[in-house]
Amino acid sequence: MCSGGVLRPLLHLILEQGQADIPFARIRHAFLDFMCDRAASMQSNRAKTMPTAKARASSILAEFDHAQTELVGKAVILTDGIAGTVDQIWLDELHGLRISVRGHEGRWPVSTIKLAQTD
Q1: Model pTM above 0.85
Q2: Do 52 and 85 reside in the same domain of the chain?
Q3: DSSP bridge pairs for 78
Q4: Cα–Cα distance measured from residue 111 to residue 98, given in angstroms and rounded to the nearest whole number
Q5: Using an 8 Å Cβ cutoff, are 33 and 5 in contact?
Q6: Residues 17, 44: one domain?
Q7: What would the pLDDT profile of 32-87 be if each residue is shown by its tens digit?
Q8: Mean pLDDT, rounded, for 21-27
Q9: 30 and 3 Cβ atoms separated by less than 8 Å
């Protein structure tokens, strides 16, 4: 009852009778019931979304590890003519997967790889 179901009758009593007529213990009890209901609801929502988030994060990390294994140490030619060995890869939140080529300054999107060494 996170929508105030427990507190709503109390609020009506407060408005109708005046705040001094309602014992503090009754208000406190209703508030604690409301907070317990709210905490249980939030926890069940968190339990539902966390496995999904963990699964997505795990798949992203698995794909990143796969890309790292596949590209680091391999010879590549980029679309702008830069050639060399992939030194490192990064996951950039703005640009996606990026690589650095040994001997050249900068990072390039993985999509600029024109040709890559195969085993």
Answers
A1: no
A2: no
A3: 113
A4: 8
A5: no
A6: yes
A7: 666 666 666 666 666 666 678 888 888 888 888 898 999 999 999 999 999 999 99
A8: 56
A9: no
